[in-house]
Structure prediction request, 419 residues.
Amino acid sequence: MKKNTCHQSALDVALLQYDSVAEKLDIEPGIRETLRHPQFAVEVAFPVKMDDGTVKVFKGYRVIHNNARGPGKGGVRYHPDVTFDEVKALSMWMTWKCAVVGLPFGGAKGGVTCNPLEMSKGEIERLTRRFTSEISNVIGPTTDIPGPDVFTNPQVMAWMMDTYSTQKGELTPGVVTGKPIPLGGSLGRNSATAKGVVICIREAVKELGLSLNNLKIAVQGYGNVGLNAVSMLHDYGCKIVGVTDIMGGVYCENGLDPKALTNQLEKTGSIEGTPGTDDLSNEDLFGLDCDVLIPAAIGNQITQDNAETIKAKIIAEGANGPTTPEADKILCDKGVMIIPDVLANAGGVTVSYFEWVQNLMRYYWSEEEVHERLERIMTESFTAVLGAAKEKGTSLRAAAYNLAILRVSEAMKLRGISS
Ligand code: GLU
Prediction:
């Protein structure tokens, strides 16, 4: 997978995307400028005892970009490339994402610079508990609610919830989302991001007059989003022609079998070498002859270096920030329909919102109820963004930003400036 080596940081990209839309909007200059900066940002350094008895110091971050529409909401990422600036960018994207789908949340994000793939379960638990303690005055069910992101999972969320609850002296399930079901997790949360991606693809396919049957799909990333999206799209009758993960990739002209991919992943830790498939590199994945490309890994993957080679008609951004502004322009000029991250992957945070609501009510919904509500929010949001894009003659990304920035700035204006 391409490393984030491009000179343009995620924060540069987030600001460019924001500025390009905000400068055309009729919003107060003070509000416009405020939204360029995170409202609150902490950097912490903390020691963790490793299995070999040594002590390692890790850096962690939590950033609330904006809370005008509600408490901060956003995942915690464990990855070697995590930086303070990246977390700031990701928190800004969360503000727009929550606003695009109309959730009563602001945007936040957290991260720890570490490589969980090289750590034991015990080390990850100790890191999680210490990080949670360090940020326990920031997070809370009415202030800032973490959730899962790259390389964090329900178990990590359970440790966060337990550490926070122990410190506060009361069980507080609403402090994090994406928890295991027995601890107040929501049914349907695990597959929610992929479900949202698939709903957006289904609606885009309708709009372009295509059919899901035999639609050729290429997916970068076989984590929570990639794996579930592949399986759902396969069930819809689509043909998954190529998939890559962090170690390698697989190709099959006649369509890959999701069960075989998952078996291989469980056996070897990668989908690479799945029987009956040919090897596929990341660069070749982007150039594949396909209808839909789903970048579902990390940011900065579709750049000006590979945008020209992309043949897909639709790109659904399962990851956050996978497309640089230069690549975005090249692809828009080619007529590719890009469903932006702030819309395409909003299904995850939407069901996180449902989880939080259920935790506060202490009343839990059936999986059907969750799916029905997710379906409605995603379809309506897609329709609203598409309608705005058509009306103004812009890309879906510009339309989504337009909608989100107006919603957030309206809330800020109504609240006024407290002194
Ligand atoms: N990490 C996911 C995102 O980027 C979900 C965050 C959450 O559920 O809080 O949208």
Observations:
- The first strand starts at residue 40 and ends at 49.
- Residues 86 and 199 are 28 Å apart (CA to CA).
- Residues 192-344 form a domain with the Rossmann fold fold (CATH 3.40.50.720).
- The mean pLDDT is 96.
